């Protein structure tokens, strides 16, 4: 089976940049470490897009990165689309 292609929505890129910018105000090293962690985990989705559980919105999945950051994505077997990257406080309960 061929690898899925990875696509980022502009909203997801903006989310990631805002998170990194916010954290870097207090700790630039921690911000870069989180950026690396999120990008590494997202890159793994092309090999195993169904690894994470179904999301709160039908047709999405949610990947927990560390304790407080959630990558919301959709996959169709050919493309993994990163939709949003949110802090857990931005999510509503299951």
Can you walk through the features of this model?
The chain is of the alpha+beta class. The chain has helices spanning 10-24, 28-44, and strands spanning 5-8, 61-65, 69-75, 79-87. The chain has a four-stranded mixed β-sheet with strand order 1-4-3-2. Strand 2 and strand 3 (69-75) form a beta hairpin. Helix 1 (10-24) packs antiparallel against helix 2 (28-44).
Radius of gyration: 13 Å
Sheet having the most strands: 4 strands, mixed
How many strands appear in the DSSP assignment? Answer: 4
Q: How large is the share of residues in beta strands?
A: 25-35%
Through-space gap between termini = 33 Å
Number of helices: 2
Order of helices and strands: EHHEEE
Helix-strand makeup class = alpha+beta
C-alpha geometry: globular
Q: In terms of per-residue confidence, which ranges show pLDDT below 50 for 5 or more consecutive residues?
A: none
| Rounded average pLDDT | 91
The main sheet orders its strands as: 1-4-3-2
- Percent of residues in helices: 25-40%
Helix and strand topology:
Elements: E1 5-8, H1 10-24, H2 28-44, E2 61-65, E3 69-75, E4 79-87
Parallel strand pairs: 1-4
Antiparallel strand pairs: 2-3, 3-4
Helix pairs in contact: 1-2
Please supply descriptive tags for the structure shown above.
single chain, 94 residues, alpha+beta, four-stranded mixed beta sheet, 4 strands
Please give a quick description of this structure:
This protein is α+β, with helices and mostly antiparallel strands and 94 residues long. The protein contains 2 helices and 4 strands, in the order βααβββ.
């Amino acid at each position: 089976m061929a690898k899925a292609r990875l696509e980022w929505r502009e909203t997801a890129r903006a989310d990631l940049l805002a998170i990194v910018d916010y954290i870097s105000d207090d700790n630039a090293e921690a911000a870069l470490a989180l950026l690396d962690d999120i990008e590494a985990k997202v890159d793994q989705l092309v090999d195993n897009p169904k690894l994470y559980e179904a999301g709160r919105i039908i047709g999405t999945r949610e990947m927990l990165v560390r304790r407080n950051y959630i990558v919301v994505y959709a996959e169709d077997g050919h493309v993994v689309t990163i939709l949003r990257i949110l802090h857990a406080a931005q999510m509503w309960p299951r």
